[in-house]
Amino acid sequence: MKVTDHIKKAKGNTLFSFELIPPQKGKSIQELYDNIDPLMEFNPPFIDVTTSREEFIYIDKNGLLDKKLTRMRPGTLGICASITHKYNVDAIPHVLCGGFTKEETEYLLVDCHYLGIDNIMALRGDAMKEEKYFIPCEGGHCYANELVGQIANMNKGQFLHEVIETDNKSNFCIGVAGYPEKHMEAPSMDADIRRLKDKVDAGADYVVTQMFFDNKRYFDFVEKAKAAGINVPIIPGIKPVAVKRHLQLLPQVFKLDMPDELVRTVEDCKTNKEVRQVGIEFAIQQSKELMEYGVPVLHYYSMGKSDNIKKIAEAVF
Ligand code: FAD
What we know:
Layout: H1 3-10, E1 15-20, H2 30-36, E2 46-49, E3 55-61, E4 64-70, H3 76-87, E5 90-96, H4 102-114, E6 119-123, H5 144-155, E7 173-178, H6 189-202, E8 206-211, H7 215-227, E9 234-238, H8 246-254, H9 260-268, H10 272-293, E10 297-301, H11 307-316
Parallel strand pairs: 1-2, 1-10, 2-5, 5-6, 6-7, 7-8, 8-9, 9-10
Antiparallel strand pairs: 3-4
Helix pairs in contact: 5-6, 10-11
The structure holds flavin-adenine dinucleotide (FAD).
């Protein structure tokens, strides 16, 4: 079922969902299941599965380093299929522009359609680790709105090179990313909102936000988006702080601010166990306020570990 239909069906009640990262190549999928199992009691209508950019690895060959391009966490679509099958829940693959040609994307979308996947999260992807800025692959999309357009066209039976007479069109519900604190490359918040509007105009049905720690940023973002004519659901993404290093890492990677009260409390923690508890308590307060505001879904970034998300969900849902 489409995310937008889940939201309609909930009739104003806030839903619970979360995002997973595929395991590293060679690791068992069991660890993923072990982290999903405790969260199923909160009835997530959908679970997102991320896609990782490819990266360079260096293999020692008799003292010479051989540079190879590889994906360390493949398996997004397979994981989506297995989650849908095992838990009878909608699983949403993240589909990236980065590293894929339009043709490869078309084949992936055809696979998604055959597997009965109803939702696609359409993203540009970040630059590769070695790149200063995002470089599209030859024959790939430059921005997420183009990818959204490709998916929307396929929903109309328009493939890349031909219009197919079909009685079996895809009908994907399309999610896109939004940034309450502005995307790091955008020159201004207003410019970023205009780009978000481009994605919605191209066919996006809902938005999931980047993590944020100050709810006011989300409320302002929603107001700005509405003023710009964006009328699709905007789902807040929540990340509980889990280790002390997050104080440096999260602002550095995601270009976001953290409230000083949270920063000071984490700084005062003696162990990461204490930090994890602070992160849980902060996310509970954040989630409760968002719920009161009437958000359609609270979407948690689990980063592969669910014990803290479970504690938050117990207190909020
Ligand atoms: P876009 O919407 O294309 O925007 C990228 C930048 O370009 C923005 O600054 C925008 O303002 C600007 N822009 C857009 N269109 C134009 C234009 N026509 N001309 C000039 N500038 C333009 N990354 C992954 O690698 N894998 C994942 O699974 C993943 N999941 C994510 C899930 C969520 C909910 C979020 C919020 C992010 C996720 N990301 C993921 C990160 C995301 O790929 C990065 O933030 C990426 O840098 C931008 O992706 P986007 O889809 O927002 O890009």
